[in-house]
């Protein structure tokens, strides 16, 4: 069964993860967020009890 032979696919997987970890991820993390969470205000929601007509 050729799908159990990890010889070509394991090296491809390791190479792709190394590429992601060492090249792509630092480039993506260097971008600044357009909507930083510091600017968001906290709002308190009020819960109103529901009056059931059959109780």
Main features:
hydrogen ion transport, 55 residues, proton transmembrane transporter activity, 1 helix, single chain, mainly alpha, elongated
List the helices and strands and how they pair.
Layout: H1 7-29
Main location: mitochondrion
Family: Belongs to the ATPase protein 8 family.
InterPro entries: ATP8_metazoa, ATPase_protein_8
Question: Could you characterize what this model shows?
Answer:
The protein is mostly helical. The mean pLDDT is 79. Helices cover 42% and strands 0% of the residues. It contains 1 helix and no strands. Keywords: ATP synthesis, CF(0), Hydrogen ion transport, Ion transport, Membrane, Mitochondrion, Transmembrane, Transmembrane helix, Transport. This is ATP synthase complex subunit 8.
Helix content estimate:
40-55%
- Run of helices and strands: H
**Which value, in Å, is the CA radius of gyration?**
26 Å
Distance between the termini: 66 Å
Helix-and-strand structural type: mainly alpha
Shape: elongated
Instruction: Report low-confidence residues grouped into runs of 5 or more.
Output: none
The total of helices stands at 1
Main pleated sheet: none
Strand content: under 5%
The averaged pLDDT comes out at 79
Q: Please report the total strand number as a whole number.
A: 0
Membrane topology: Single-pass membrane protein
Keywords: ATP synthesis, CF(0), Hydrogen ion transport, Ion transport, Membrane, Mitochondrion, Transmembrane, Transmembrane helix, Transport
Organism: Psephotellus pulcherrimus (paradise parrot)
Family: Belongs to the ATPase protein 8 family.
């Amino acid at each position: 069964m050729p799908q159990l032979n990890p010889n070509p696919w394991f090296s491809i997987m390791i190479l792709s993860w190394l590429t992601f970890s060492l090249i792509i991820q630092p480039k993506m993390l260097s971008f600044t967020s357009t909507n930083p969470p510091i600017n968001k205000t906290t709002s308190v929601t009020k819960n109103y009890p529901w009056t059931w007509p059959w109780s």
